[in-house]
Amino acid sequence: MSVDLEHYLIVGAALFSIGLYLALAKRNFIGVLMGIEMMFNAANLTLISFSRFVESDQALSGHVFVVFSITVAAAEAAIALALAVLIYRTRETIDVDSLDLLKG
Amino acid sequence: MDDTGVVIAFYVLAAMTIGSALSVVIVRNIIHAVVGLIGTFAGLAGLYVTLSADFIAIAQILIYIGAISILFLFAIVLSPRASRGNTETFMRFPALALAGLVGAVLTYAAVDTSWNVTNEEGFEETAATIGELLLDQYVLPFEIASVLLLVAVIGAIVLVRPEPMEEED
């Protein structure tokens, strides 16, 4: 019994689809953001496992890419949660289905 | 990776990651969902250790568990009169279908492709090499990332200022 690249890729795929479901279906804006963070994490796991298992002359470039990905995810989380607080301040709710100002 | 310990660790950590992620979907309170999210991040940090990515595992714990989860909790407590529920919108079944489809396609691609796998053992330690790469080959993206972080911090502060800046009369 051994653990191979495919095992990690399947975990990444499962995590990505759970994140996608959260981002599409959750009513609470914070829940949507949780889904987006989960998709970021699934992509990071995939990059790290490719870096570990796949033949390459630049073995650690995948790790460097994940460092940048984590940076972008942190910046995204800070801005998006600031937006959540801002929306709450003007509308007293952060439910995405009640944010329908652009509806005709 | 035939080591029995690594195999057991992989299955335990993968079950913890996916289980916590599912609990984020299932629980009805948004604060409990954050706890599930922290479990997902912690399981991923363990999976990074099994992939011999020590630096990324520590960064995962510091940034995701230490910073981003706390940011989620702050956003929840700063919106006290908003709903604490974690229910789905009417998009529930289309989203379920789409997520299942994407997961199935990704799994099929992962299993069906013949990856160019090496037989090498894991890395000895990665932090020093990552540091050299960041300051040598990837120095321009590194600087851009630092500017991006600065912009994000300033942007977040400006967005949540209690009063908009007064215009000069």
Q: In words, what does this structure look like?
A:
The complex is a heterodimer of chains A (104) and B (169). Chain A contains 3 helices and no strands. With 104 residues, chain A is mainly α. Chain A has one domain: Helix Hairpins. The longest helix of chain A has 31 residues, at 61-91. Chain A starts with a helix and ends in a 13-residue tail after the last helix. Chain B has 169 residues and is mainly alpha-helical. Helices cover 70% and strands 0% of the residues of chain B. At the A-B interface, helix 1, helix 2 and helix 3 of A face helix 1, helix 2, helix 3, helix 4 and helix 5 of B.
Give structural attributes.
heterodimer; A: 104 residues; mainly alpha; B: 169 residues; Four Helix Bundle (Hemerythrin (Met), subunit A); 2 domains; 6 helices; 0% strand
Shape of chain B: globular
H/E topology pattern of chain A: HHH
State the largest interface. A-B, 74 and 87 residues
Low-confidence stretches of chain A: none
**CATH architecture annotation name of chain A:** Orthogonal Bundle
In N-to-C order, the SSE pattern of chain B is HHHHHH
The number of distinct β-strands of chain B equals: 0
Mean pLDDT of chain B: 88
Number of DSSP E strands of chain A = 0
